[in-house]
Amino acid sequence: MVKKLAYWPIVAGVIFGVAAPLLAKFGNPGNMGMCAACFLRDISGALGFHSAAIVQYIRPEIIGLILGAFVSSFLFKEFKPRAGSAPLARFFLGVFAMIGALVFLGCPWRMFLRLSAGDWTALAGLAGLIVGILMGIYFFKKGFSLGRNRPAHPLVGYMMPLFGVILLALLLWGMYGEATPVKFSTKGPGSMYAPLMISLGVGLLLGFVFQKSRFCTIAAVRDTVLLKETHILQGLVAFVLFAFITNMLLGQFHAGFEKQPIAHNDALWNFLGMVLSGLALTLVGGCPGRQLVLSGEGDSDAGVFIMGLLVGAGVAHNFALASSPAGIGANAPFMVFAGLIFCIVLGVFAKERR
Amino acid sequence: METIDVRGLSCPSPVLEVKQAMDRGVKSLKVLADCGTATENVTRFARNANYSVDVKTLDDGTTEFTLNAQ
């Protein structure tokens, strides 16, 4: 199946695999050098959309991903303002993708980072992710589609990059300003972060290489199963391998099921949380990180999905759905099933009119 | 020759539509795509499936592929 080495995905995977554990070394939370879901959740909290005091910070990595992809898409003439493919369906897929991720405690990126550091509780999450993707593939084979986008005015395409710039301004206001409405954690994961310039720089670099390489954890599995194509999977393997090596070198590899950083060992809900997330992400077309990159290259529907993730984080913390190292939230089981039903109904009935 | 218009579709629909046409036994097809990812995916998939790939960029920025089984 490996007919040709996938140059750009492997380059992206190697850089990401080295950079993410280093970010944790420089101050980001354990096994959370980079996590699109957790970091958007922290941003949601910093903006006051939820009041979980331990997870509030405007993560420069997210800003960097959007802006890095924006720059890359401009240089390679791939910046294409587009909009109009079932935005509200994508919004709610974002809400449920975030809820599933926060039941598991991480997006697919962090799931692989947890595995690369010996956190075996993430194995149930990996199984869930694969099952979710397989369910999504089934719907695609049966004709699932959210419909077409249309070319849009350039201003529409600039909105997410502009949103990134505004987040940067709010971050600086929160850090250095007085009487700031921006909330930053003083303890817990939200209070743990690498120096701003390092976080922003790594985010920009990754946004650039992810745009160029189309790196995506969902596509890695999906294309291998659906198309017998390992192009993106090669990048994912490089990512996990180099994250493992870097974690070993930094002394951050601790194998086991117990006392893993910001993780719980409830295998059933680690599994089901990731089934929900994996299915929602497959239906929308890519993992949260990939959607951030797409939003930077002018895809306004991907931007709507990101807004869904931000709102989903608020819902998850306001309604006791998000897990903690102590276990799952009180209302998580109901919402995971509600989310699965939403995704399955959408998967069965949403088809493009021809 | 069959024409498949995948403009505006998000992944994996563009390449999946091409695959399904090939699976139906279509030996010669024209594909219209409008984003870099779909363009790369279609090219790679068609080459791996032993189709020749001719690429032309139209005035409105659309990429037009002509794929022929070899």
From TrEMBL, chain B:
Pfam families: TusA. Residues 2-67 form the UPF0033 domain. It comes from the Bacteria. Transmembrane segments: none annotated. This is SirA family protein. It comes from Sulfurospirillum deleyianum (strain ATCC 51133 / DSM 6946 / 5175).
